[in-house]
Amino acid sequence: MTRGIRGATTVSENEEKQMIENTKILIEDMVKKNHIKPSDISHVFISVTKDLNAGFPAKGLRELEGWTFVPVMCMAEIEVPGSLPKCIRVMMVVNTDESQLNIQHVFHNEAVKLRPDLIKKKGE
């Protein structure tokens, strides 16, 4: 079975180093919370809002051990008036036996506002 795992983060500036670092931290947290190995990952889509163009956020993933062959693609998020600025969104598709209910979606920084209904508290 494949499952999608959502993740998102924000940065304070349109700066390549910050985009790469925040994305890397987010991905590491998604992997940890869902007990994923790189070989379990089918592919990863990363979108950025139009105000982020200083670099490719996926660059940080290449620094992670075992991620050499994981297909990753960056793209532009659709522009919706009033949407969260400076936001990096991740859709990670993984092979897992976990039910959708047990998937841990991860939101960092200002992105916690996006889907508070998906954020699980400790012990849930």
TrEMBL record:
Enzyme Commission numbers on file: 5.4.99.5
UniProt cross-references to Gene3D superfamilies, sorted A to Z: RutC-like (3.30.1330.40)
Acetylation listed as a keyword: no
CDD domains for this protein: AroH
PROSITE patterns: CHORISMATE_MUT_1
Annotated catalysed reactions: chorismate = prephenate
Any one Gene Ontology molecular-function term assigned to this protein's record: chorismate mutase activity
Keyword vocabulary terms for this entry: Amino-acid biosynthesis, Aromatic amino acid biosynthesis, Isomerase
Pfam name, any one: CM_1
UniProt enzyme class: isomerase
UniProt entry tagged with the keyword Isomerase: yes
Protein name stated in the entry: chorismate mutase
Native source organism of the sequence: Oceanobacillus longus
Organism taxonomic ancestry: Bacteria, Bacillati, Bacillota, Bacilli, Bacillales
